[in-house]
């Protein structure tokens, strides 16, 4: 990972940790959210430049967040709703791979295990922000915009942070 990616990752971890601290979370939850935020920020930076989400970044972070989630009392309803959205995104990715990549689905899994009860709101907000950006691109560039791939990781990351803050 480059220095820039490490800096972005650290800033993401700090931003999520600060949001968690404002909500008076316990240490396990604060750690889980910092890990999730660091991985989301790094994935967003890579996605913006390379239009891909690295498995070597997202999958270990998702495993760590899942372990931290299982180590504390969990709001199962919140986790279940996030995982249901991940299953829906997986189905969409399998049906229309050009519309949604598997990296985006894995990122949604990270958000689901990392944000626990906030996951479904984070995913929906992130997807709504991406849709809004797509609409704005269509208005600005017309039919040419249909040919552009829109990286979802930055939108999902902003949606995740906003779901924590709101």
Provide a short characterization of the protein structure:
The protein is 78% helix and 0% strand.
Question: What do you see in this structure?
Answer:
By secondary structure, this protein is mostly helical. The chain has one domain. Helix content is 78%, strand content 0%. The protein contains 7 helices and no strands. The mean pLDDT is 89.
What layout of secondary structure does this protein have?
Layout: H1 3-22, H2 27-50, H3 55-70, H4 76-95, H5 102-115, H6 119-141, H7 153-165
Helix pairs in contact: 1-2, 2-3, 2-5, 2-7, 3-5, 4-5, 4-6, 5-6, 5-7, 6-7
Notable traits:
166 residues; 7 helices; 0% strand
**pLDDT < 50 stretches:** none
Separation of termini? 31 Å
Strand tally is: 0
Largest sheet: none
Strand coverage percent: under 5%
Helical/strand content category = mainly alpha
Task: Kindly give the count of domains.
Answer: 1
Quaternary state of the chains: single chain
Helix content: over 70%
Shape: globular
**What's the Cα radius of gyration?**
15 Å
Number of helices: 7
Please tell me the overall pLDDT.
Answer: 89
Run of helices and strands: HHHHHHH
């Amino acid at each position: 990972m480059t220095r820039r990616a490490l800096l972005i990752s650290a800033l993401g971890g700090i931003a999520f940790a600060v949001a968690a601290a404002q909500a008076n979370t316990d240490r396990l939850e604060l750690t889980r959210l910092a890990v999730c935020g660091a991985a989301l920020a790094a994935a967003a930076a890579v996605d913006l430049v390379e239009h891909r989400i690295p498995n070597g970044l997202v999958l270990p972070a998702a495993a760590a967040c899942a372990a931290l989630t299982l180590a504390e009392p969990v709001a199962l309803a919140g986790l279940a709703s996030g995982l249901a959205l991940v299953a829906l995104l997986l189905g969409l990715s399998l049906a229309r791979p050009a519309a949604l990549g598997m990296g985006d689905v894995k990122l949604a899994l990270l958000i689901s295990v990392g944000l626990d009860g906030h996951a479904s709101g984070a995913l929906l907000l992130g997807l709504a922000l991406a849709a809004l950006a797509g609409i704005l691109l269509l208005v600005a560039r017309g039919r040419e915009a249909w040919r552009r791939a829109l990286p979802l990781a930055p939108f999902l990351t902003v949606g995740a942070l906003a779901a924590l803050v709101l």
